[in-house]
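Form 7-S
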Amino acid sequence: MTMTKFGTKVLAKELLPAVTAQSAWLTETLRTLVEIESPSDNKAAVDAAVRFVATLAGNSGGRVKLHKQRHLGDVLEVRFGPRHGSRKPTLLLGHLDTVWPLGTLKTMPWRQHDGRFYGPGVLDMKAGVVMALAAIRSLQQLGVGCPITLLLNSDEEIGSPVSRAITERLALASAAVLVLEPAQGLACKTARKGVGDYHLNVTGVASHSGVDFERGHSAILELARLLQTVAGFTDLRIGRTVNPGVISGGTRSNVVAQHAYADIDVRIAKASDAAKVDKLFRSLRCVDPACKLEITGGLNRPPMERKPGTAALYKRAHTLAAELGFELNEAATGGGSDGNFTAALGVPTLDGLGAIGEGAHAAHESVVIEHFVPRTALLAAMLAAM
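Output:
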C-alpha cells in the first residue's frame, strides 16, 4: 500500500528500517519513562511523567498544550503536522498514569531479561506512549507530514473523570482514533465491553445478638438476599457479566449488623443493554421492610462496538501489517479503555495498537521485545495512510 501525504509517497516497508534505526532510542526512552513512577492518585508523580514526554514531543516539533488539573495529573495534548489544512488529524490516544504505587520499582525494577522488558507500567501503557513518539519521529525522518494529535491522559486507570471531556472533544475533531493500549495477545482490539460500577448500601437495625436478637434486622442478611438477585443479572448470551467483587458489613459477631455494602462490577457488550441493566439495579428492593437500601453508581464507560468505521480501520491495519511481514488479527475484550468513549461517539476507533506482552496490572508485567519495532512501524504506517 502506497501512502501519500502532502506530495510525499512512502511504502509501508520503508518504515521498518526507519523504526529499526531507533531501537536504542526506544529502549532508552522506555526505561526512563518506566522509572518515572506515575500512580494515578499522585499528581506530582504523574506530572513528572507528563513533563518528560512533553519535552520529547516538543523536541520533535510538537506543539504542546497542558490541560492543567488541580488534584489529578495534567493532561497532555500535542499537535504535529501543519497548523492549518483541510484534513482532520488522527488522534493518538493513551495515558501516562499506572496502577502501581510509588516505591514499586524497589521490588519490580526495570530489567531486560529473556527477550522482554519488565517494570511497573511498561506494558500498560508506557511502551505505547514511546511507540507513538518513535512512529512520529520515523515519519518526520522520511519527510512524511501527517496531521496528528497525541493525547495522553492522567486518570485512565481510575475511570478518566477529568480527561473524558477532553478526549471526546478532540475525538469529534479527528478523522479516526488509534488507541495505544496493549495488544490482545498478538491482535488489535475492535471491540471492548462497557464498564459499570454499582454500589449497594443496606441499613438495618442493630441489636445484641444474645440479649435482643429479635429486635435486630440484619443488613448483612438483607444484602445476601439482594446479591442472590444481582447474580441473576448476568446473561452470558448477550455478553453481560455482573460481579459482586467487594462486600463488607457488621462490627462484631455478637451484634446484628446495622450496615452492609457491596461494590459490583458490570460489563456489557452492547450500548442498548445499558438501560436494561440500570433498570434491573434500580428495581432492587429489600425483603425486610425494616431495612433500607441505597443504590448508587452506574455505567462508567460505554461499550466499544465493532462498527463499520472500526472494521475499515482494522482492514487497513491488516493490509499494512502484511506488507511489514506479520499477520494482524482482531479481538474483543472485556476490559475498557478511553477508546470506549471515542467509539461511542461514532468516531472510527482501533484499539490495542500498543505493545505486545503480558501481565498488565500484575507483578510479571512485561513487553515482548521482538514485536516492539514491527508494531511501531505499523503505527507509523497507519498514521501515514490516514
